[in-house]
UniProtKB/TrEMBL annotation:
Enzyme Commission numbers on file: 2.1.1.37
Family that this chain belongs to: Belongs to the class I-like SAM-binding methyltransferase superfamily. C5-methyltransferase family.
UniProt keywords, alphabetically: Methyltransferase, Restriction system, S-adenosyl-L-methionine, Transferase
Catalyzed chemical reaction(s): a 2'-deoxycytidine in DNA + S-adenosyl-L-methionine = a 5-methyl-2'-deoxycytidine in DNA + S-adenosyl-L-homocysteine + H(+)
An example molecular function term from Gene Ontology annotations: DNA binding
Species, as recorded: Maribacter ulvicola
UniProt-listed CDD domains: Cyt_C5_DNA_methylase
Alphabetized InterPro entries for the sequence: C5-Methyltransferase (IPR050390), C5_DNA_meth_AS (IPR018117), C5_MeTfrase (IPR001525), C5_meth_CS (IPR031303), SAM-dependent_MTases_sf (IPR029063)
Official protein name in the record: Cytosine-specific methyltransferase
Active site: residue positions: C72
Top EC class of this enzyme: transferase
GO terms (BP aspect): DNA restriction-modification system; methylation; negative regulation of gene expression via chromosomal CpG island methylation
Keyword Hydrolase attributed: no
């Protein structure tokens, strides 16, 4: 099945769908810092670099599905949480505009769990209504998932909108299957002791990295960062991988940070040398990008941003596989009914 992707970023969602058997024929991403990474890792996909607001629907290829993650900063509970009042939040409407015009069999949209906070309830209800009524209409399924339950070694809660075109006469059911937790030891243990610090001003080491992208941001830690523990042990899962490198979790080689007073922690005295941020490659592993997926950037912050904004590949593959399975099951059911009906007539 052919699909198109909006707000593609580095392509974690796209890669998951490709691994599940879909063909991503066309993708769109406006951030120029991501272009090289997407194009080199998705060479068979036609890549559009315009803002979605400037893309006429008739220039988007016909397809079986539309996927994407409209920018999430506007909805983040950790940020300003301006939601639909922010221009970035309003890009959801352009996603719906394209959906209404193209009328694919299904769509998937992903966003942060901050969409669920009370102040966004009216906007969220409005988005759901627009998705349900797009064109001939869609049966909408909506649920928050934690990537930790789907072969992803981190706590990461995100909401998913999945719609099936009404004329197909079935509603997508989120799978109830989950998987055992994957630890940091399993995910990044083999990379231990190989990471190198970024160059001055957090410039990349480039090809000098012993493992591609295995370099970490240098520099101090904010009082906000030091307000709570940022270390998970080897036998635990990672904290959420964020888009900001300065907020990357600390490598599990370090002991958990010591509480001094409310909202104030320090690195354990005498162990300060163990406290480094996870590297770009370690964050990519935790987001379940494969080793041969190389991120291209000049500043390491751009690498962290690409990875932190991505949908974990394994979670994307799991959802894509379930969508494909349910579409095929419905198709086979219709074929069976037609055969039965034909035999009765005969």
């Amino acid at each position: 099945m052919n699909i198109v992707s909006f707000f593609a970023g580095a392509g974690g969602l796209d890669l998951g769908f490709e691994q599940a058997g879909f063909n991503v024929i066309w993708a769109n991403e406006y951030d120029k810092d991501i272009w090289e990474t997407y194009e080199k890792n998705h060479p068979n996909t036609t890549f559009d670099k315009r803002s979605i607001v400037d893309i006429p629907a008739d220039e988007v290829p016909d397809c079986d599905g539309i996927i994407g993650g409209p920018p999430c900063q506007s909805w983040s509970a950790a940020g300003a949480a301006r939601g639909i009042q922010d221009k970035r939040g309003q890009l959801f409407y352009d996603f719906i505009r394209i959906l209404e015009a193209k009328q694919p069999k299904f769509f998937l949209a992903e966003n942060v769990s901050g969409m669920l906070i009370g102040k966004h309830s009216t906007a969220l209800d409005g988005i759901k209504k627009l998705l349900k009524n797009a064109g001939a209409g869609y049966d909408l399924s909506f649920q928050m998932l934690n990537a930790a339950d789907y072969n992803v070694p981190q706590d990461r809660k995100r909401v998913f909108f999945i719609g099936i075109r009404k004329d197909l006469n079935f509603k997508y059911e989120f799978p109830t299957e989950t998987f055992p937790k994957i630890t940091l030891e399993s995910a990044i243990g083999d990379l231990d002791k190989k990471a190198i610090p970024a160059l001055e001003f957090n410039n990349t080491n480039g090809k000098r990295c012993p493992v591609p992208n295995h370099e970490y941001m240098i520099g101090g830690f904010s009082t906000m960062f030091m307000s709570r523990n940022r270390v998970r042990n080897w036998d635990e899962q990672s904290f959420t991988i964020q888009a900001g490198g300065r907020h990357a979790p600390i490598h599990p080689q370090a002991p958990k940070m010591k509480l001094i007073e409310k909202d104030v922690r320090i690195f354990v005295p005498g162990k300060e040398h163990l406290y480094r941020r996870l590297s770009v490659r370690e964050c990519a592993r935790i987001q379940t990008f494969p080793n041969d997926f190389i991120f291209h950037y000049k500043k390491v912050a751009a690498g962290y941003k690409m990875i932190g904004n991505a949908v974990p590949v394994n979670l994307a593959k799991f959802l894509a596989s379930s969508i494909l399975q349910q579409l095929n099951a419905h198709k086979n059911s219709l074929i069976k009914k037609k055969k039965i009906k034909k035999s009765v007539v005969i």
